[in-house]
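Progress report, Aim 2. The chain analyzed during this reporting quarter is listed below.
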Amino acid sequence: MTEDDQAVLSLDGVRFRWPGQAADIVDINELQLEAGDHLFVRGASGSGKTTLLNLLAGVHTPSSGTIRLLGTDLGALSASRRDQFRADHIGVVFQQFNLLPYLTTIENVTLSCAFSTRKKARATESNDVATTARRLLRALNLDDEFHSAPVNKLSVGQQQRVAVARALIGGPEILIADEPTSALDADNRDRFLELLFQEVEAQGCTLIFVSHDPQLAERFTRTLELRTNAGTR
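Predicted C-alpha cells for the chain:
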C-alpha cells in the first residue's frame, strides 16, 4: 500500500483563483492527512481559508492540481456526485451553525442522516438514529431537557454543541470546523475544544479546524498557515 493509499486526504499541486483574479488565493503544493490527524488552518481574513474548505468539501474544484479524499479524485466527479460524496463522508461545523430554527434539537442532529443512507446505516448500527443523537448530545454536555426544545431557544454555546453533534452523527471520516469558537470567550472556547477533541478521537475522525486565533495551534498535531503563498508544516 502506498502513502497515497493510506491518506484520508491528499492534495497535490492545488491552485485556485477566482475569475478575474491576478493571483491564486489557494496555492498548496502538497498536503496529506491520515486517519485521526488534527489539522489547524490559520490565516488572516482574505487568506483563502473558506475557499480552501470549499475545495476540500468538493463545493469548488481546483483551477489545477488534484484533491483526493479517501482515494477518490473529487475533480473527477460530477457536481451531484461530489455533493453525495460530501454528505456520506464529511461533517461540517459552520461558523454560523446553519441550524434550522423550526426543528427541534434532535431533528437538527438527525437531519444529515436524511441525506446519506451511509450515515444513517452507521448511526443505527446499535440504536435508532434518535438514540444515537441523544448519546452524542449527552457526550457534548447538552442535557436531555434541551433535546426536544426548538433549537432557537438554546443559547449560542448550546447551539454550537448541536451543530457538532449533527456533523459527527453517522461517523464521517473527516470533520471540518469553520471558525467554530469565534463567538466564545476563552473559558467557553477551551471547554468546547475539550469536548470536540473527545468526540473526534472517540470516532477516529480526521479534524480540519479553521481559525484566525494562533493561540489554538498548540492543540493540534499539524498546522497549515495560509498567507499570500500558502505553506504547511
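Residues 9 and 72 are 9 Å apart (CA to CA). The beta strands are 9-16, 26-33, 38-42, 64-69, 72-73, 90-93, 174-178, 206-211, 222-225, 231-232. These observations will guide the mutagenesis work planned for the next reporting period.
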